[in-house]
Amino acid sequence: MSNVLSITNLHVSIDGKEILKGVDLTIRRGELHALMGPNGSGKSTLSYALMGHPNYEVTEGSVTLDGKNLLELESNERAKAGLFLAFQYPTSIPGVTVANFLRHAVTNIRHPERKEGEELIPMREFRKEIKERMDELGMDPEFARRYLNEGFSGGEKKRAEVLQLAMLRPAFAILDETDSGLDIDAVRIVSEGVNKVATRDATGVLVITHYQRILKYIKPQFVHVLFGGRIVESGGYELAELLDAKGYDWVREKHPDAAKDEDELEPKPDLVKAGF
Ligand SMILES: Nc1ncnc2c1ncn2[C@@H]1O[C@H](COP(=O)(O)OP(=O)(O)O)[C@@H](O)[C@H]1O
Ligand SMILES: [Mg+2]
User: Fold this and answer.
1) Ligand 1 in contact with 43 (CB < 6 A)?
2) Cβ count within 10 A of residue 48
3) Staple partner for 86: which of 20, 99, 161, 194, CB 3.0–4.6 Å?
4) How far apart are the C-alpha atoms of 28 and 202, rounded to whole Å?
5) Would you place residue 90 in the very low, low, confident or very high pLDDT band (cuts 50, 70, 90)?
6) For a pocket test of ligand 1, which of 14, 89, 232, 270 has the largest count of ligand atoms closer than 8 A to its C-beta?
């Protein structure tokens, strides 16, 4: 298993427009990091680029897992190398149950040489394991029989992701806006799940959020502010508290160059209203 995820001078463009302009970030196994930043600052762009989404073009810089170049790997190979990404907007897969999906995913991660159509991990072993993980996370066993994300509430989608995290046991997990659309009880339950899993497996976690509230439960040791496509501030948990109390205006004043870039990046207000 890998121990260090290093992002160095990462530049990423979408449709030829540069969104990330030199991001540097190092995460070690067992560390909890938070990436904060106003809407449109490029947080999701970073998570998509790390996972290898084809629309996000890396034009400069490197991403390595223990020195191994991640950028030359396909998305599924990145997952096999130990990277997990929980999307801001997970898609539903009608006809595939949570259990069935996880049995395939777990088999593929643990047996990277397996070809499509070859045997899955034995049912008994898998059942026992998923039951243990669900007990641990306080989940109803019935949940595993439902179709993945089909008709799930916001909280259920996020809990399904935490269950994935618990079963796949990646070295590094990136959780993009895991708290969006959740009420405060759901935020707490999901956070407790993440904490349990991260502690047990010494997962390196990057929590991406523009609110501080989830960070009250997932207490990160490191907090970074992404702004205008760069990390402009890094600190401890107190940085998240400062942002909660004062907002981002002081960041804009302190980093006028990045603020200039932010104007370019600012999403269209009507798109923001529509929830994008
Ligand atoms: N698929 C896309 N096509 C074009 N522009 C995009 C796309 N995704 C994001 N952007 C733009 O990239 C910038 C950063 O977006 P994003 O990474 O989603 O920010 P955040 O997650 O911090 O809110 C925004 O200006 C956004 O409009
Ligand atoms: Mg986002």
Assistant:
1) yes
2) 21
3) 161
4) 9
5) low
6) 14
User: Does the Cβ of 55 fall within 6 Å of ligand 1?
Assistant: yes
Tokens of 73: 């790997």
Ligand 1 atom closest to the CA of 176, numbered from 1: 21
Cα–Cα distance list, 249 to 63, 255, 257, 259, 261 (Å): 30, 10, 14, 10, 15
* CA of residue 40 to ligand 1 center, whole Å: 6
Superfamily of domain 4-87+170-273: P-loop containing nucleotide triphosphate hydrolases (3.40.50.300)
Q: Is the pLDDT of residue 22 over 70?
A: yes
Mean pLDDT of 29-56: 93
Q: How far is CA 157 from the centre of its chain?
A: 14
pTM: 0.89
Whether 142 and 61 have beta carbons less than 8 Å apart is answered as no
Q: If you measure from the C-alpha of residue 34 to the centroid of ligand 2, how many angstroms do you get, rounded to a whole number? A: 13
Instruction: Please give the pLDDT value at position 189.
Output: 84
**Whole-number pLDDT of residue 145:** 94
Is the CB of residue 35 less than 8 Å from the CB of residue 229?
no
Calpha distance 114→225 (Å, rounded): 40
Enumerate residues 6+ apart whose C-beta is below 8 A from 226: 23, 35, 36, 37, 41, 42, 43, 46, 232
